Amino acid sequence: QHGILPEELGNFLQAAKGYKHLQIRGLMGIAPKVEPVEKVRPYFQQMKDLFDKHFKPGTLNFKPYLSMGMSRDFEIAVQEGANLVRIGSAIFKSS
Question: Measured between alpha carbons, how far is 2 from 10 in angstroms, rounded to an integer?
Fold first, then answer.
């Protein structure tokens, strides 16, 4: 489970254009588990800034995804611009 450092994203996206069968459809980020959960907000804000910079509306022929937020922090992620969230344990937790 590794990702791309924020400062490397532009170069990565540029390099990906060289693969004709590959289309990057958006960004996905997972915030660290911190307490209180509100402390994840800066991570989501940074992801939204990167998303806005690299996936500008009107320049794409598809709706890009900003996937961030999971069961414990999805509400903050949505407030910060997520349009795709991963909710698993909140739905499927064992009783």
Answer: 17
Per-residue pLDDT of the chain (95 residues; tens, 9 = 90+): 689 999 999 999 999 999 999 999 999 999 999 999 999 999 999 999 999 999 987 778 889 999 999 999 999 999 999 999 999 887 887 65
Give the span between the Cα atoms of 60 and 52, in whole angstroms: 12
Domain ranges of the chain: 24-92
Tell me the CA distances in angstroms from 46 to 10, 33, 43, 94, one per residue in order: 14, 16, 5, 33
Reported for 58-62, long-range contacts at CB under 8 A and 24+ positions apart, including other chains, are: 62/23, 62/25
Task: Using a cut of 0.70, tell me whether the model's pTM lies above it.
Answer: yes
